[in-house]
Structure formats: C-alpha cells, structure tokens
C-alpha cells in the first residue's frame, strides 16, 4: 500500500527542486500490456499481477558511482571513465556474464542543472550509471554534515561529549539525510522492476533508503551491506534517531556485516530497542520482523586479485621497486598505508616504532618505517590535529634517531599512485595496520598478494621463481579484517609497548615461520576475493527472497516507521459483521477468551477488568445458548476476585490446572504430582538473586521466573541457562519447562490451554450440546495451543457437526489462528457485537411511548 510520510522533511524530500528525471533507456514496470506504470503508482499490496518485461538485473546503489570525472575547460565538456579501483565495479566479477548491472549514486563532481539531463543520458548509455544529482545544499548537509560529522564518528565509537569533540545531533542535518535518501529511492524506483531485479544498497550513507523502497514495493528484493563498524548498543543508543535507522535496515531482506562482532552489536540493538529476538537455523541468522524474516550475513569483503596482479606487472611498478631497493639498501622496511583521520592510529604507530628503536638499539640505522598517508576523506579540526601530531612525532623520531644517511620515519603525505603503493607492498618486510577502529581495511590483503609477487616482479627483485614467499602482518584487533587473518600478530593499538614488541617479533621471526603464515593468508585471500564475496551475498539474497509471493503482505506505519506485515494468505482481520452473522445463525456457542492482552491491555497497570468488559461478559453469559470461558495463566484467586461480578462465567486458571464452570461451581483440579516444585524453587531463587530485575512468581501448580525488567541481554542469557538447567534436573519428573516472552515457566505435564478447550468441547458434546459456533481469542504463545485444538475439533468425534470456528489472535503476527484483531479495544468491540446480538435492544421505543401516552392524556 502507498503510505505517505507524516514528517515535513519527507514532504520536502519528495519535492526537491532541480532533480532531473532518469533518462530514457531503462524499462519501468509493465502492469498492463503496452502501458508503462507511473513512477507514483500505488505499491504492490496483495497484488501478484505485475508482470516483468525485462531480464533479471542487479541494481547497485551507493553514495558514489564508480566513475572518475574530469572537465575539459577548453571545450567545457565533461569526460567520464570507469574507476577500476572501485569495489562497486569489481563486484561484477561475482555475477554471471549475462547479468545486467546498473549503478545508482552520485558523481564526485557538481554538474550544472542545464547539463544534467544530457550527462545522465550519456552515463546511462556508456556506463549503465544513473546519477542522483543531489542539490548542492542537500549534498553538503547530507554527506559532510550528517554522514561525516554524526554517523561516522558514532559508528567509530566517538561521542560528542563536548563541543570540542564532535558535533552534537542536528535535526536539520538529519532532515537533509532523509531527503537525500528519498532522492536515491526515487531514482531506484524509476528504473526498478521489483519482481525481477535485485537491489543491493551499500553503507551508512543510505540507512533509511530501504524504508522508502519497501514502502513503494512491498515485495522488493533488497539487500544491504554495512561496510562500517556497527557500535555496541551502549554507544548506538545515544543516537536520537536510533529507531528510525534500525527500522530502515530491517526493511531489507538481507543485511551483511564484515564480522560477527558488528552483527552481534546490531542484533543486540534490535533486541534492546525494538524488542526483537533472533535465532539461528541451519547456519543462517534470522530476525522475525512482523512476519518477514530478515537474514543476517557475516562475510568480510575481499580484493580484486586480477587488478592487483596487473599492477604488479606494470613497468612503472617494477621501476619503482628498483628505486626503493636502491634507496633502502641494507635496511628493512615496515610499511603503513592509512587515510589521514583520527581513527587510523598513525601517531600511535609512530610512538610504538619509537619505542622499538629505544628498546632495540641494534635496529637503529637498519630499520625504516614508511608511512603512506592517503588524503583525508573529511575535513575538520580533528583531522588537522591528527595530522599535526603525526608530523611532530615523525620529526622528533628523525631528530633523535636519524642521521645524515638515515631517516627512520618516511612520511609520504600525498595521493600516491597505485603502482607506488604496490611497489612498497612488494618490498616491505612487514606491514602494520594499527587503526583504533576500522570497518574492514583491505591493506593487509593487498600486502599479502603483492608479497606473493609475479613473474616480472620476481625478475625485478632478483628472486628465484621457486623460492618461498614470506610476509608478516601486525594488525589491530579493532579492524574488520583481523578475524580472517589468523596468522597475523594481533595487537591492542593503545598498548604502545605491545605494538613495539609485535613489530620486533615480526621482523625477527624465522623465515620458515613467515613462510607458513604467508601461505595460510594467501590461500584465504585468493579464495575469498571480491567476486566470492559478491556471489555469496547475492546467493543468500536470492534465498532470502524466495518466499516473497507465498504470503500476503501489506504496509503499515507512517514516515520512517513504515514496515511490511507478511502473513499467511488465509490470515485476515476478523470482521465484526461476519462473526455476528455466524453467531446469529447458530444456537450452541462456545467462547474462549484469554485474559491479559486480550480483554485487559498488557500496558495497563490496573489488572482488573473495566466495567465495560464486565458488562460485555455478562451479556454473553446471560444467553443460555452460550458457554463462555476465560482461559488464563493467572492464579485462580486473582481471576475469582477480578471477575466476581460475572457469576455465569467459566474460569480456567493456571493454563487449565484449575477449572470451574461458573461462580457457584467448585474448582476442579487435575490430579498431578507437584513434588518437582521443591526441586525447582531453590534453583529459580538462585537465578533471581543473580539477575538484577528478575523475580519469581509462585503459583499453586507452576513456578514462573520473570526477567522483563532485567538487562535484555543478560536476562535472555540467564533464561537460556535456566531453561537448560531445569530441563536437566527435571528430566525424569512429570513437569515441562517452557521459555516464553521474558519468562521461564515450569508446570505439570499435560496442562495447556489447548487441553482446556478440548475438555470443555468434549463435555458439551457428551451432554448433547456440541457447539455449532466456536470463538477463541488470545494474544500470546500459550494461546496457540487453543487455536490448534479448536481447529482440530472439526476432525474430532467429540464435535459431530462442523461448527463455525473463529480462532483469532490479538495483533498482526504469525499465528495458527486464521484471524486477527488489532488490540484489546477491537476484541471488546467484537464481543459487544455478539452480546448485542443475544440481547437486541427494542426498536422504536421512543415512538411507542409517545403513542401510549397520547391514549391516556
């Protein structure tokens, strides 16, 4: 369904001035033969009629297109070339040759408005690229504002504790971010065929883009890969728009992360802030999100082997290698290649190198650290401070330990060409990546491949063809590639002494050990390249989307709170008119109602029923054709007190362990062994004392451990441990252990709400009153037993006729019930309709009174 945002900034985003239309050349969605659908057409809610007019495509969406742009100021014309180093371009190797790949993103240069249409057509024709052309003001606030000043520092664990350490949250920058994402979404919508195309969105610049795409196409095939670190929940929860971003990501079908740590932090945030649980099935992690399964993939990106090997064989690379060998003859090289920013740990690396020279004087004059500094991707006082500190530290080291023919630290602070970096990779004895936080960092991978060499490189370096290759890596434990490099020396970059010792170990390690470590790394890097990464992600995305058309889906929620409900085709909202009509047609009726969350709201602090609920229940019970039961996990004392005014109401307490048919009846109880309670109670007390915020509820037939007020992660962990503990000790006892929402419950075997329903229906049938109308309403997992039992009743001999059955859950969620109602208000409204059908109010009473009065006056 189409859902407009309630936020003014979304209205702004949908009406950005100066955004050119996508050029001709890409077919849009065909809905009727010969007619193209409008870009603003309604979404595909419950519609399977859309048909494809083009072959399957991959639409890659990222902040920047994989293009280089240069303007000829003589002619005023723009010249564009593919950026061969772009990950987005290299990914194509993982797709089949027949696949059509289209890119959506921004250009790295600003294009005048009067040139945009012509350039857009050129880029589409020549490169299959669709530019977004963000307005300059939006672009500045979006990228340099929200992305670089707020998201990027936060994802790297930097909080704006004061104005000198980062910028505080700015709502205007957030609006610009949303507006930019909306423009990206519009471009994708203009070219996408949602039934066939797979859309793959990249990185933190486009975190709410999935919401816009899912809102337009409910069944869009959408993957998202998060290339940055994802912080722990304690850091992430400080973001004022944390829920909107999480919900944006959850509108994807598959979300990828480089490491399990990043995925674990994301899952923890979903649990703590949105109350979502995840589970692992057959090696795949999935989150249930309103009936949709959002899968989580953990796979670090790789490098393009062919691209690196081709650069290794360039004459310019070989010449540079000879130059480096001559320049540093008789010396060993340690190499660092980093962007100039505060998280790359360059100054910490220099301090560790200084410590190495101090502690191991034999390396003075023989060991050189070459630090290549890539240009900063952002500007600001933090970057300037990091640069100043780097230069001051390097200058001090060179003054203390250097000489006329020896400079310990070489800083290459410029945009070094690729061949030059490759040459340094090939020559360096050791490579160190000392970042204090980094999403992935492919420098170690590139170093390993370059150290493996090539035939021309071996000839240049004077190495025999069959000689063993060696490499040594010192990597920070806080970077994404660290877990995959098991042969590297992992360090805490903040521990200067440990980093210095790691560098010493790396350059003094025996060649045989270096060779084994290198071979292990090279096998991994060469087999897990960028093509493997792209192919693996796309295969998982296809698997995640395969059941899109097996369920009914529709959108709910406004603005960035939009999400899609995906449920069984037979699952629908219970119509009051429909159930009342069936009620009137029947004469023997059974009604089963849960208590908490069904007739009384879960959010209410007052657990007793309202006067309206009591009146409705009494209206239903007053009909002699009705048998009405409240079936609850609550104790019988509580239910008796709260529902004392409902004299003809049946009660089933503690999931059916206790049962009475009306207020005048005696309580019936199951004859079961409860000796196991003496085993369970001390164990639950132990977990209660160890888990702050938890408590134990003692029932006559059951014991329940609650942890909804405990820390979400710790409470969940403790509940799993308690479940395992109790299952072990109760293995030979007549009790079952059940883990529910924020509870662990132990109760007698054979006591379920489903058995209550079966028992009542069976007794009615045996008394010749087999019901021809059954309603069952509940809201949680324990009620699913009732739904199943009632559904099975049509096949049970205890119910000879086929009754009208209405199994209904409260809330739109996966269920064994065939119907749903939105909330307790809907339930009460439905019950009132049934009650009114049993006790119709007399019509025309006012007119009759007037006529009667006129006879006597």
UniProtKB/TrEMBL annotation:
SUPFAM superfamilies: HAD-like (SSF56784), UDP-Glycosyltransferase/glycogen phosphorylase (SSF53756). InterPro entries: Glyco_trans_20 (IPR001830), HAD-like_sf (IPR036412), HAD-SF_hydro_IIB (IPR006379), HAD_sf (IPR023214), Trehalose_PPase (IPR003337). It comes from the Eukaryota. Gene3D superfamilies: Glycogen Phosphorylase B (3.40.50.2000), HAD superfamily/HAD-like (3.40.50.1000). In the C-terminal section; belongs to the trehalose phosphatase family. PANTHER family: ALPHA,ALPHA-TREHALOSE-PHOSPHATE SYNTHASE [UDP-FORMING] 9-RELATED, TREHALOSE-6-PHOSPHATE SYNTHASE. This is Uncharacterized protein. It comes from Rehmannia glutinosa (Chinese foxglove).
């Amino acid at each position: 369904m189409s859902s407009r945002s309630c936020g003014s900034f979304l209205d702004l985003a949908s009406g950005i001035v100066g955004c050119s239309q996508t050029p001709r050349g890409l077919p849009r969605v065909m809905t009727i033969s010969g007619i193209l659908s409008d870009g603003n057409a309604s979404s595909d809610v419950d519609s399977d009629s859309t048909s494809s007019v083009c072959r399957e495509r991959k639409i890659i969406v990222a902040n920047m297109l994989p293009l280089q742009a240069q303007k000829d100021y003589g002619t005023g014309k723009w010249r564009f070339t593919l950026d061969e180093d772009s990950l987005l371009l290299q990914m194509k190797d993982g797709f089949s040759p027949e696949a059509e790949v289209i890119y959506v993103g921004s250009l790295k240069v600003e294009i005048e408005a009067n040139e945009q249409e012509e350039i857009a057509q050129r880029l589409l024709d020549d490169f299959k690229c669709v530019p977004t052309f963000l307005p300059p003001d939006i672009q500045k606030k979006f990228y340099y504002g929200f992305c670089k000043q707020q998201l990027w520092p936060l994802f790297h664990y930097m909080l704006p504790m004061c104005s000198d350490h980062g910028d505080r949250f700015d709502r205007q920058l957030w609006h610009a971010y949303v507006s930019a994402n909306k423009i990206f979404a519009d471009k994708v919508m203009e070219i996408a065929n949602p039934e066939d195309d797979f859309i793959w969105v990249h990185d933190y610049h486009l975190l709410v883009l999935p919401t816009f795409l899912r809102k337009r196409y409910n069944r869009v095939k959408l993957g998202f890969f998060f290339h940055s670190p994802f912080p722990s929940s304690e850091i992430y929860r400080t973001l004022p728009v944390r829920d909107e971003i999480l919900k944006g990501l959850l509108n994807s079908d598959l979300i990828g992360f480089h490491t399990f740590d990043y995925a674990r932090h994301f899952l923890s945030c979903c649990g703590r802030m949105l109350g979502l649980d995840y589970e692992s099935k057959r090696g795949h992690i999935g989150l249930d999100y309103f009936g949709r399964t959002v899968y989580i993939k953990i796979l670090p990106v790789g490098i393009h082997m062919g691209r690196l090997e081709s650069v290794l064989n360039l004459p310019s690379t070989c010449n540079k290698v000879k130059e480096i060998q001559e320049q540093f003859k008789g010396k060993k090289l340690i190499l660092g290649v980093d962007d100039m920013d505060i998280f790359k740990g360059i100054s910490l690396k220099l301090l560790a190198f200084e410590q190495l020279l101090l502690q191991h004087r034999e390396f003075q004059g023989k060991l050189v650290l070459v630090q290549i500094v890539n240009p900063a991707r952002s500007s600001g006082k933090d970057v300037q401070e990091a640069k100043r500190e780097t230069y001051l530290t390097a200058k001090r080291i060179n003054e203390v330990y250097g000489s006329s023919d020896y400079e310990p630290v070489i800083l290459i602070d410029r945009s070094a060409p690729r061949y030059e970096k490759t040459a340094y990779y090939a020559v360096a004895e050791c490579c160190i990546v000392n970042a204090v936080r980094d999403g992935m960092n492919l420098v170690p991978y590139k170093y390993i491949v370059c150290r493996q060499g090539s035939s021309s490189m071996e000839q240049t370096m004077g190495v025999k063809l069959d000689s063993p290759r060696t490499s040594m890596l010192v990597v920070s434990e806080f970077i994404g590639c660290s877990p995959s490099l098991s042969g590297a020396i992992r360090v805490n970059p903040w521990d200067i002494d440990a980093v210095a010792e790691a560098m010493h170990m790396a350059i003094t390690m025996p060649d045989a050990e270096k060779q084994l470590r290198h071979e292990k790394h090279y096998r991994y890097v060469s087999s897990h390249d960028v093509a493997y990464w792209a192919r693996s992600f796309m295969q998982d995305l296809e698997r995640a989307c395969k059941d899109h058309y097996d369920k009914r889906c529709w959108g709910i929620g406004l603005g960035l709170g939009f999400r899609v409900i995906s449920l069984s085709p037979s699952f629908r909202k219970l119509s009051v008119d429909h159930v009342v009509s069936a009620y009137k047609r029947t004469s023997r009726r059974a009604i089963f109602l849960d208590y908490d969350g069904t007739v009384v709201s879960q959010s209410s602090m007052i657990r007793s029923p309202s006067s309206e609920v009591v009146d409705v229940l009494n209206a239903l019970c007053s009909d002699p054709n009705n048998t009405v039961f409240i079936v609850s996990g609550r104790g019988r004392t509580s239910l008796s007190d709260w529902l004392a005014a409902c004299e003809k109401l049946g009660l089933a307490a503690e999931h059916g362990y206790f049962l009475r048919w009306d207020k005048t009846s005696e309580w019936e109880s199951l004859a079961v062994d409860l000796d196991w309670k003496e085993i369970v109670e001390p164990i639950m007390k132990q977990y209660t004392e160890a888990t702050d915020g938890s408590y134990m509820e003692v029932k006559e037939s059951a014991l329940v451990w609650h942890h909804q007020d405990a820390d979400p992660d710790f409470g969940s962990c403790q509940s799993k441990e308690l479940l395992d503990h109790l299952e072990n000790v109760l293995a030979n006892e007549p009790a079952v252990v059940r883990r529910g929402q924020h509870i662990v419950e132990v109760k007698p075997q054979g006591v379920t709400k489903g058995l209550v329903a079966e028992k009542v229906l069976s007794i009615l049938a045996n008394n010749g009153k087999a019901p021809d109308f059954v309603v069952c309403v509940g809201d949680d997992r324990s009620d699913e037993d009732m739904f199943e039992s009632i559904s099975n009743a049509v096949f049970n001999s205890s119910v000879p006729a086929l009754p009208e059955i209405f199994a209904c859950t409260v809330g739109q969620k996966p269920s064994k019930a065939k119907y749903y109602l939105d909330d307790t208000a809907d339930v009460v409204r439905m019950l009132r309709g049934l009650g009114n059908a049993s006790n119709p109010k007399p019509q025309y009473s006012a007119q009759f009174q007037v006529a009667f009065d006129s006879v006597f006056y």
